[in-house]
Amino acid sequence: MRKQNVWALCLIGMACLVSCNNEQEFSYMKTDSPLNLTAVQVKQSVQSRASSDNQWIGDGTEHVSVSDGSDAATYTVVNENGELQCSDENNQLYWASATEEQTVTAWYPATADNKLWESWTVKSDQSGDGYQQSDMMYANTKVALQGSHVLPFRHQTAKVIVHLLKNEVMAEELAGATVTIKNVALQGNVNEGALIRNEQAGVEDVNPKAVSPMKDYLASYEALLIPQLVKDKVFIEIKTTGGKTFTYKPKGNEGLLEGTYQNIYYVTVGKPGISVVVERGGLQWGQEGEDQIVDMTHE
Q: Gene3D superfamilies from the entry (predicted)?
């Protein structure tokens, strides 16, 4: 009887061990369905074919890092709709459950090791490719095999738009004027996907990108910047072909640059100086702002 009891205990112990191992293994199991996702950017009223302007090119040159919390992989944007395809079939992510939601994070541009950026630097010359190269986006959301597959990307840089309004008095001198964004930090740290200014970094000037002007604007410029506050120092400088220089110094929160939002500066240059109307966003890029601040600065 004693031997039988011992064998019975051994069998019970083995059954328990197998059961525990199966439960542990099951907890780490994933489905055999590859993670299929779509990268969606915040819509913008005026679109061009670049991620920094809220539309994917989708020609295979744009790569996104995707993490499910335990594994990470590189995905390629394969069309203008933002459909993602794993770049390495041997290193794919899979749905963790057929029914339950799972949290996914992603960032653009992708990193070589698929580890989230620790810092980010925007380009000082954004007149060409530097504008697109200054764009950084991040997404964190819940997705499900039988639910949403959408990754909503948010631009982490702050967008600045400068519109030069037409002025017949200065029309000839303003044609071909040079606009510079001044006294801004170009380096930032990344904290859980959000850009924060690196306080140790000095300030530099940025050469913005010229874009096709609309409405009654003589010229328009855009720049992507690290979130920061520019206050009581020259922020926008305009040099005319006639050799005149006009500058704008923000006051209060007029120069508050927030990640994912945009500030629009409507600039009129004339006699005796410069006037600026500031439209600060309370919403995402490309949407109408909530506040208007008027500043008349003459220098």
A: 2.60.40.2630, Fimbrillin-like (2.60.40.2620)
